[in-house]
Design brief:
About 35% of the residues lie in helices and about 25% in strands. With about 325 residues, it is of the alpha+beta class. The strands form 2 sheets. An 8-stranded antiparallel barrel has the order 2-4-3-10-7-9-8-5. Helix 8 packs across helix 9 and helix 9 packs across helix 10.
Length: about 325
């Protein structure tokens, strides 16, 4: 990523895209009080600098996939190449280096609720340990607040996607937790949106091999059913937050739901989910610096009833932040 500095307009643009990743630049420009061209130019600068990317992210529970959190102990010299190799796989949803490059933590997204594909990883000479946990139920309904604090309430209301995406139930409406059968169009459309969530309809039609009208109609259905949402990938360091930390918590079962919901409301929280395994809650938190992280761990978590044990690992770098849907 080339050197980039974000000003207020950049942060407002990122907040607007987090509200609706496919919002027209003209709509964003009107709310921000600038020209369409200014907004487009700002986004192109951030995108071409690899500072920002809008990605279409499928909900694995609705697509019938299982998310496996896999923690690999690795020899430090081999961590970065292995992370890049994992990031190129079609079944990885998220890949990060942690603990100064002595660990790789990743999420495998596996079709039909299958097991994590660990056999090959365990045989690699650079891998010193493997641990896998099934992610069960994400606790957060929103996003990390550090990306969504640049607009006022009136601007947020004007940019919410309800006007562009009809929220009424459509043909994909399912009972809570029921998977939506993916079509042949979906299997080409979802990877294209993961690569570029703002790809135009003509570009999506070319990539998928379907007509533009079919793509437009199907994407509206997928959005209405929340099968796909749009996320803004941006390095938290550009927003002034230098400490990103992975947390594995062991929580008293009777308190697990309450603790998960409580942590999900914290401004530091970027992701919270229950898991299988000896530690039953996984979280990612983002803090201004290591002093703020220490305060969070000793103050916030230390005072939270039901938490018996916490293991931490500082994020060193990200190799991948969003996923395609596995094609097999």
């Amino acid at each position: 990523m080339r050197s980039v500095t974000l000003d207020l307009l950049d942060r407002q643009l990122l907040h607007a895209l987090q509200l609706d990743g496919r919002a027209a630049f003209s709509a964003i420009a009107e709310v921000l009080g600038v020209s369409d061209r200014t907004v487009a130019r700002r986004y192109d600068r951030l995108r071409s600098s690899d500072a920002v990317r809008v990605a279409g992210v499928p909900d694995s529970r609705l697509t019938g996939h299982a998310d496996w959190l896999v923690r690999l102990g690795v020899l430090p010299f081999s961590a970065a190449p292995l992370a890049r190799e994992l990031a190129r796989r079609p079944d990885t949803a998220w890949v990060t280096l942690a603990s100064s490059g002595t660990e790789i933590v990743c999420v495998f997204r596996v079709a039909a609720g299958g097991p994590a594909p660990l056999a090959d990883l365990g045989r690699l000479p650079q891998v010193t340990g493997v641990r896998a946990q099934r992610l069960l139920r994400p606790a957060m309904n929103g996003r990390w607040r550090g990306r969504t604090s640049a607009l006022d309430e009136d601007q947020i209301a004007a940019l919410r996607p309800s006007a562009a995406v009809d929220p009424t139930p459509g043909p994909l409406a399912k009972a809570d937790g029921a998977a939506v059968p993916l079509t042949r169009l979906d299997r080409s459309l979802l990877p294209a949106l993961a690569a570029d969530g703002r790809a135009t309809y003509p570009a999506l039609a070319r990539r998928s091999g379907w007509s533009e009208s079919a793509v437009r109609r199907r994407l509206a259905e997928l959005r209405r059913a929340a099968v796909v949402t749009f996320d803004v990938e941006v390095d938290a360091g550009l927003l002034g937050f230098s400490a990103q930390c992975l947390l594995w918590l062991t929580v008293t079962p009777a308190r697990l739901g309450d603790v998960a919901r409580t942590l999900a409301e914290d401004p530091e929280a970027a992701f919270v989910s229950t898991t299988t395994g000896p530690d039953n809650l996984f979280a990612i938190v983002v803090c201004r610096d290591t002093d703020a992280l220490d305060t969070y761990l000793t103050g916030r978590l230390g005072a939270l009833g039901g938490v018996d044990r916490v293991e931490t690992a500082l994020v060193t770098a990200y190799a991948r932040r969003a996923a395609r849907v596995e094609q097999g």
